[in-house]
Amino acid sequence: MTPSSESFTPINQIGEFGLIDRLRDVLAAASDTPEALIQGIGDDAAVYRVGDGRVHVVTTDALVEGVHFDRTFTPMRYLGWKAVATNVSDVVAMNAQPRYATVALALPNSVSVEQAEALYGGMAEACQRYGLSVVGGDVTAAARLTLSVTVIGEAEESAVVYRRGAQVGDLLCVTGDLGSAAAGLKVLLAGKQGFEAGGDGESEAAAQPNLTDFAYAVERQLYPQARLDRIRHWAEVGVRPRALIDISDGLASEVHHLANASGHGAVIEAGLLPIHVQTFKAAERFEEAPLSLALYGGEDYELLFAIPESEKDKMDANTFAVVGQVVEADAGVTLRMPEGEVIPLEARGFDHFG
Amino acid sequence: MTPSSESFTPINQIGEFGLIDRLRDVLAAASDTPEALIQGIGDDAAVYRVGDGRVHVVTTDALVEGVHFDRTFTPMRYLGWKAVATNVSDVVAMNAQPRYATVALALPNSVSVEQAEALYGGMAEACQRYGLSVVGGDVTAAARLTLSVTVIGEAEESAVVYRRGAQVGDLLCVTGDLGSAAAGLKVLLAGKQGFEAGGDGESEAAAQPNLTDFAYAVERQLYPQARLDRIRHWAEVGVRPRALIDISDGLASEVHHLANASGHGAVIEAGLLPIHVQTFKAAERFEEAPLSLALYGGEDYELLFAIPESEKDKMDANTFAVVGQVVEADAGVTLRMPEGEVIPLEARGFDHFG
């Protein structure tokens, strides 16, 4: 082995995506691409042929205490659910069916056997809902609770949809609403601060949002739903999007990924974004723009997809919203405000090292 | 969702294997076994059919800073290598070829971009050596460096070897030597203590083992080799063991797993265990029994396998050692000392919550 470099570049200097690019280069320099591998790093999941015209897809996501979740307001069952659902979302974003999962769980001493069982109970519930099985895992001690889940899915090779593939003129569509999961997180964090501040109960009650006023948003944050229902609907009505990605880091970031991978630009219509009434209420309460939550909020786990206009009417109109269009690369990625002004749409999403 | 239980049972009260059993029960209660799944939790890797008479196997292992490794004496390249090699070892222990890997990496701020690249460089090196590719991953921030790797392998369904399947009278064999990785860890830990103690250099030098005297043992600890060479040799000479497991937690623990899964007992001959001269030296230095390192040391990543006596001469005699025999279940799992005394062999291995 060769010794490692002596330089020290802090990770936040190049950011999460910059780091991922550099690590991908290290791997690419070292190995040949196996013949059966269709897609490696760079989409929602990797894709490889398994025979009989079928492919498997595989994806991994880690949830780290203090980074992705706060144990003070995240019940263990929800955490287990979310760890599975977010990985299922990546499989769904390849237009594939989830089949198997493995789990690497690192547990601090402060977690009891019963809490670990509740965590696994939530994973089991998500597995039942989405039709997959946990087939392996590793349990170890750690200072912070960390949960890494890998999900393997299956599809006909011809059914898989990548981030690339959108064509100029295609409609950009999203499922569900945007920004409510981020609104829910703000509500939970404010509730925690109010609780920690203590006080006489009067001023405290004024500072703390009423959770029941934001029940939908809180549920979107703690109990996200992978959009397996949508890709099943597409299969039923014979629609296959040209490009597809799940919305985990916020719409703005995902539009850039889809447009870049497809070699085109995109325009998003601010006035067409589906925003829930509780997201508006939370935005008002926390003095944020609702549009900002919808574009940069993250953790919605909805789908962004591109289809030719001719395909639009095949789908149930209640299952998606048109939010923009694919345009020439020269035009870049932009946001058109309801008043008509067109501004560049920043790729800004959530950066764990920011 | 239902609320979780109010009881608090500390994990170390039931231990790592006890916890795994309880978590497996939670999962089993919730889901049907998919038709294509041949082996779920309970062997070195899960096994599922992918078509054309072939199966895939999948396994996950996490390495957590402060639990599995100490950054003060673990170079990043070695850590990356080990994370891949230990998972490859589990794939090999199913008699399958490694193909794809995913990586979930959680990085503290104290790790630089260059160190992360060195870590990935070690993973890339292991991937080249063992013929697999990293196809996906997740990079996130964390308080402690945590590295979860999942490896997917491939085999003919008829070639796969499980822990179960050993028959009474079969020879129990191991590859390589036992206990040297644990000896290497003791050397590294003693070196660190001596360094931290500081001093005038005289008494310090006396306390610190000379690393070059223990180069082999240290390399076994930092740079373990998955035994892909051995299963390739078996394929060449037409040998398929009846039962197979990799030795990650120490021979004693693995013999119990293999014997229990096969429904039999086993006797291990203490006088036949392959122990390296540096393991004897380390045992003397740290006042431990060499036999104890060989039986309970862990992290050897060698293979334990059962074959009928008639198969023995097909294999190159330099590639394995016979260390015992499969016996009736009534006889339990025992250790025969060189003087002839037979004592029960404890299942004791490494327990992260112990």
Distance between the termini of chain A: 32 Å
The total strand number of chain A stands at 13
Regions of chain A with pLDDT < 50 over 5+ consecutive residues?
none
Spatial strand arrangement across the major sheet of chain A: 8-10-7-11-9-12-13
Q: Major beta sheet of chain A, specifics?
A: 7 strands, mixed
The quaternary organization reads as: homodimer
CATH architecture of the largest domain in chain A: Alpha-Beta Complex
Describe this structure in words.
2 copies of one chain form a homodimer. By secondary structure, chain A is an alpha+beta fold. Chain A folds into 2 domains: 39-159, PurM-like, N-terminal domain (60s Ribosomal Protein L30, Chain: A, 2-Layer Sandwich); 171-344, PurM-like C-terminal domain (Phosphoribosyl-aminoimidazole Synthetase, Chain A, domain 2, Alpha-Beta Complex). Chain A has 10 helices and 13 strands. Chain A has a 7-stranded mixed sheet with strand order 8-10-7-11-9-12-13, with helices on both faces. The first copy, chain A, has a 6-stranded mixed sheet with strand order 1-2-3-6-4-5, covered by helices on one side. In chain A, strand 12 and strand 13 form a beta hairpin. In chain A, helix 4 packs across helix 6 and helix 4 packs across helix 9. Chain A is globular and about 55 Å long. In chain A, 53% of the residues are buried. Chains A and B meet through helix 1, strand 2, strand 3, helix 2 and strand 4 of A and helix 1, strand 2, strand 3, helix 2 and strand 4 of B.
